[in-house]
Amino acid sequence: MKEITVYARAGQGAITTAVIVGGSYFKEDKFAYAFPHFGAARMGAPMNAFIRVDENPIRMRSKIYNPDYALVIDATLMKSQDVFSDTKDGGIVIINSGKEYELDKDNIKIFTIPANQIALEVIGRPLGNTAVLGAFAAISKEITIESLESAILERFKGEIGEKNAVCAHKGYQYALDLKANEN
Amino acid sequence: MKVFMEGSHAVAEAVKRIKPGVVCAYPITPQTHIVERLSEMVADGELAAEFINVESEHSAASVVLGSTATGVRSFTATSSQGLILMSEVLFNIAGMRLPVVLTCVNRALSAPINIWNDHQDSMAIRDAGWMQFYAENNQDVQDLHYVAYKIAENKDVMLPCMVCMDGYILSHGYENLDLVEQDVVDKFLPKYDALYKLDTENPLTMGLLGAPDVYMETRYAIHKTMEEVLALLPGIEKEFESIMGRKVPLIVEKYKTEDADKVLVGMGSVAGTIKDTVDELRANGERVGLLRIIAYRPFPKDVIYEALKDIEKIGVVDKAISLGSSGPLHLEISALLQEKKSAKSINGFVVGLGGRDIKKETVKEMFSLLDEETKAVRFIDLKKWYKEESPIMVLEEE
């Protein structure tokens, strides 16, 4: 079983992000359970959404405390939430940010993706979720970019769907280049 | 059709296939997504129902009482305070033998205000004369709605039925589901044909005065019917499987109880977390199991007794508390073992109130506490407060 946590603020589409990830796995014939945890129910309040994935139906209903993958939609949350120590050993953190992050834990990998920048260019609004997901597909190889694109187009109809799919592809390419440079 | 869908939307899709003539509800979180989606379906012409907007849950329940009384299949859904506000009408619906179906998206009760999951709402109205079924996952949620109408509208039953699903955990959780096709649902669930209905051509009255010479018999009749429902459930399980092509357990589910020394008894989505923990503990050689209760009303005493009679250590997991006593499920399981003259001592655990997360560690702690002195009430995962911090939140350290 793989576990993924989305770190965002209420209004930043954490649930949508989790549902698109779950939907991508579903398209690859996996079982997924995507669910939110609401906090104070106010715009801007920190909130998490979670995804569990497995070859078998998911039965576990608790929140996720130590994810394999952490998707940080809003990097300012890292001031109040210790994303790095939450993440499982050997796990991967993908941060929507233009800046680099220092890590005092050896066995976690960090990737920063300027996802809001990508979204501003493509959509005209700083909604980096789908670019982060493109990067997630490239880095984790958990889901293909094709199933991600198809899950995005199912969630967002028409032009906004097309633009989000472009964001995903750009995030995907950016992360592939990052990985290539790394090697 | 395989889909990846939110629990609330799975309810709406099920209700669409059930084709009620009237949908009436008042929005309350975490139930809101169900009627939101149903209102879209009605507006888009996908569901030929009258969607009635009202000003409160008391009115919503009154509307479905009235519409069902005229012989029209009706649906409503609510949570928490909404269910409690409906309660006066809920007793009337049962007393008038109206087969209303209600989805209770389980949520804690105020005060303090809390929108998160537990079972205190549906437990508070367990005595209303409604059948209650608790879902473990969203496939159950969908399937139990077809079953709910099937049983409720049976002419030998004619009682309302509540499908209980855990707020957020299921209502806001997206899962892989198999959505049943319309023609299959039509085969399982025939059109509603009321036994009695309000009709100006053939006038009758419902819910009139029941003086001491008849009232008691009306309650006895409901109680008798509830008992008879238990005998009908296995047949409905069979019919469901033969038409839908998959099983839906309606009474209890035994998970690795056959050779178990220790068994936890629980209802709803916590069963999934317990199953995963059971597998983990069994991998370490512990003989543990789960008994999941699905039908809470009627209460399947004999089946529960058969499942538990050879188990050495039993713990009942309640997401509710009868304040000043113990968990409602704990009380009933203790009572039924007493009735069967079984000397077993039953531990009671209160967990997950107001959305307190129930983790694998929570489940492991309960299994391990079964080795200690028996207690009717233990709150698990409780924080400690001291008198000096707040005089009304007292919890001395043990």
Describe this structure in words.
The complex is a heterodimer of chains A (183) and B (398). Chain A is of the alpha/beta class and 183 residues long. Chain A has 6 helices and 6 strands, in the order E-H-E-E-E-H-E-E-H-H-H-H. In chain A, 49% of the residues are buried. With 398 residues, chain B is α/β, with parallel strands linked by helices. Chain B is 39% helix and 18% strand. Chain B is built from 12 helices and 15 strands. Chains A and B meet through helix 1 and strand 2 of A and strand 1, strand 8 and helix 9 of B.
**Range of helix content of chain B:** 25-40%
Q: Please identify the structural class of chain B as seen in this structure.
A: alpha/beta
Low-pLDDT residue spans of chain A: none
Largest sheet of chain B: 7 strands, mixed
CATH superfamily of the largest domain in chain B: Thiamin diphosphate (ThDP)-binding fold, Pyr/PP domains
Shape of chain A: globular
Indicate the radius of gyration of chain A in whole angstroms: 15 Å
Q: In short, what is this structure?
A:
Chain A contains six helices and six strands; from the N terminus they run βαβββαββαααα. Chain A has 183 residues and is α/β, with parallel strands linked by helices. In chain A, a hairpin with an 8-residue loop joins β2 (31-37) and β3 (46-54).
